[in-house]
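Exam review. A common question shows you a sequence with its C-alpha cells and asks you to describe the fold in words. Practice with the pair below. Do the first one on your own.
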Amino acid sequence: MTDRLPRRELLRLLGLAPLGALACGDGGGSLGDLGPTPTDSSLPDAALDGGGACLPTSSDALGPFFEAGAPDRSSVAAADEPGDRLLFAGVLADLGCAPLAGMRIDLWQADASGHYHDAGADFRLRGHVITGADGSFAFDTIVPGNYELASGPRPAHLHLRVSDPAGVSRLVTQLYFTGDPHLGDADGCQPPTCFSNDPERILDLVPMGDRLMADARIVV
C-alpha cells in the first residue's frame, strides 16, 4: 500500500458520492445518499517507488476465521452492533497506480469484544463489495476489539481479501490501527505468520460526526 488517501480525497469520496455507489452492489443496505456522484474519478497522488510504480500492499495471515459466501453489502455491522461505528473507505489500484474496477474485496473481523462469529444466516461482521469505476470502495462497520492468543494479545484488525473477477485471490492482508499497544513486537502473532509492524497497513482513526473514519489505498 502507498500513502493513505489525502484528507481532501477522502472527503471527496465520502461527501460527494453515495457511499453505496462507492462500494458498488450493497445488497445488505447502502450507507446512505450523501449527495451527487462525483465526476472526478482520478486517484489521489500516490507515493511511488522511484520507478513510477505504486508500492504493493504487503500480505498478512488469512487466519482461521474466513468463511466463503459473505453477502454483497457495504454495511457489514448491523445498526445495533455494539461498538464504535467505523467508516472504512479506500481505493484499489494496480502497480502502475491505475484504479482497479470490478474487483471483489471481502472484509471480516472480530466484534468489539474481540470475538469472531460463525457466518450463520446473517454473516455477522462479514461482507464483500465490488470496487467502483475509480477503484473506490467503502464499508460501514465497527472498530474491532483485541483478543488473546496463548502467545499473547493480538492488535485490533480488519481482514481483507482482494479477488479478481475470475475469483482468483490477489491479496490477503490485515489492516491495523494507530496507537494500538499490541502492534509489532507486542503482537501475540509474530512473523512469519503475522506482520503487524508494517506502517503502511496501520490506519489512523479520525473522529467525524457520530463515527470514526479510516482510509487506505490498497495496491495489488
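Now try the second one, then compare your answer with the model answer below.
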Amino acid sequence: MRDTPFSRIHLENMLRAQQAGAVIMPAILSYYHAPKTIDDIVTPYVCRVLAQMDLPQDAMFRWTGSAAAKEAKA
C-alpha cells in the first residue's frame, strides 16, 4: 500500500475514529489461499466488506486449516 506503514498520526486518528464508532477496515489483501488472478485477490476483501455490513455473500473463502493439519487428524 502506498500509505503504509501507518504513522503515529494515522494510528491516533484511526483510534479516535474507532472510538467514535467508525469501523477501520484498510484494504489488506490476503495471499494464503494462493490467488491466481486479480479477481482472486479482490474478491475476498469485497466479501469481508459485505460480511461487515451483514450482507449475504457466497464467494467468501473460508480458512479451514492447512492440509497437513487435516492429514494429522485423520
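Model answer, second protein: Residues 26-73 form one domain. The two ends are 40 Å apart (CA to CA). Full marks require stating both points clearly.
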